[in-house]
Amino acid sequence: MLIFGNVFFLIVLFFSIISTALSSEICNKIEIPLKLDKFNIPYLTLIIDKREYKALFDLGSSYSIHIPKKDIKYFPQLKYTGDVEKTININGEINNNMLFYIPNMSIDCMSFENINGVDFQPWDVSIGSEAENEKLHEVVIGRGLFKDKLITIDYIGKNLIVEDYKNKFEIDDLFLFPFKDEDEDEDEEEGEDEEEGITISLKSKYKNYLMSLDTGASESIFVSSKVDPKEKIEHCDFDLGPKIDCKKIFYDFNIGGVNSFNVGNVANFKSDSILYPIDKRFKMDGLLGSDFFLSFIVKINFPLGSMSLIKLEKDITLLKH
């Protein structure tokens, strides 16, 4: 019995050493659990430098990470640059952000380098009389974190897959097209971000709309002043706030325009989106929010500047609030 005990101990110790070695290895692919709140806003559970965080996943943010000041102490490599950058939300409210730099950070077993971030400041906008969204997050993760990665966003499957860059797309990706900020060369006004995100095209019979992907938006929104009046527009009864009439645009839009290929039914996005008077400094024609991400599995190849869509057949009206 004594010998068996010693052998068992050695075996356990051996496998423990193997497990420790494997857990310290750098990997090129991770799968992160994704949870939607009651407004279909996505949250991630992340292990950052061996510490667990709840993170809001916001493609609308150009930064890699937003960290509350109280948690800065947990990031020993973090250094403030001394720069202050201005950001603006859809209501025109401007925030001054203290910029910092992290040379290297790990999420699970994947390494991320040259991280830019800012102190966390609330910038969300609640439209209408609904109660404000409960704050479930400790940090915010923006699109800047994935500048050299390929990501797959799957709301229905409840996960976010992050992979090291590869210059290819899968044969099962039925629809692939480039994305681009077509206005990035224009002059900026105070508070404008020259990169308004991952911008794609929605085409109707009357107009080609440039829309920014925004996982932080609970619904898609069109800028009311930029919608062609010939579109099918109907009144609605949602309270958008004082002196704002509730209107929705109804259309089965074509996605991607002339730059896409393998175009078929997958290229259509059926919209019943709200029209809202977004601040005039916002250059795009609107935001694509949770209803878009509940319609497609979205793959984004940041270094290649392309994305692909896999259409979901679920009835998203059952998933919308």
Outline the fold blueprint:
Layout: H1 2-23, E1 29-36, E2 42-48, E3 51-58, E4 65-67, E5 79-88, E6 94-107, E7 110-119, E8 139-142, E9 149-154, E10 159-164, E11 175-178, E12 199-203, E13 208-213, E14 221-223, E15 233-235, E16 247-255, E17 268-276, E18 286-288, H2 290-293, E19 296-301, E20 306-311
Parallel strand pairs: 3-8, 4-7, 13-18, 14-17
Antiparallel strand pairs: 1-2, 1-10, 2-3, 4-8, 5-6, 6-7, 9-10, 9-19, 11-20, 12-13, 12-16, 14-18, 15-16, 16-17, 19-20
Could you please describe the fold and organization of this structure?
It is built from two helices and 20 strands. It is mostly beta strands. A 13-stranded mixed β-sheet has the order 5-6-7-4-8-3-2-1-10-9-19-20-11, with no helix packed on it. It has a six-stranded mixed beta barrel with strand order 12-13-18-14-17-16.
Summarize the structure.
It contains two helices and 20 strands. By secondary structure, it is mostly beta strands. A 13-stranded mixed beta sheet has the order 5-6-7-4-8-3-2-1-10-9-19-20-11, with no helix packed on it. Strands 12-13-18-14-17-16 form a six-stranded mixed beta barrel.
